[in-house]
Amino acid sequence: VGWFDMNRRTNTATSFNLEYRSHYKLWIFKPFGGFMGTSDGAAYGYAGLGVDVFFGRRLVLTGNTALGGYHRGDGKDLGYWLEFRSGLEAAYRFDDRSRLGLGFHHISNANLGDKNPGTEILSVFYAFPLGHGN
Predict the structure, then answer these.
(1) What distance, in Å, lies between the first and last C-alpha atoms of the chain?
(2) CA 106 to CA 111: how far, in whole Å?
(3) How far apart are CA 134 and CA 130, in angstroms?
(4) Threshold 0.85, pTM exceeds
(5) Which of 11-15, 86-90, 118-122 has the lowest mean pLDDT?
């Protein structure tokens, strides 16, 4: 759950994410896909790659980038349907490999549309393993 468009005073909303992160690796990168919806009806489906950097057994920093389709709903106009997401997450990893953390992501259309206002999302998340991997 997060704060959509957190650095602005208008168009802010609550965001809700559901992601699947694969335990398979493509070199050091792990594929993932997800869906974000906001309290004002915006929706964003995406897929991308992430990389985990461990500091000991407990602290994990994850950098990620994704590409997806955006639907405005009654929310913020991001200027184009195709949007790129990049972000960084910091999490505490428990013994069962579940994680509790904070994430910061930026969504932008990379100037593909007539305008590119972009947005930032600050979120808190809980992730749990469905199978193998870390």
Answers:
(1) 22
(2) 14
(3) 10
(4) yes
(5) 11-15
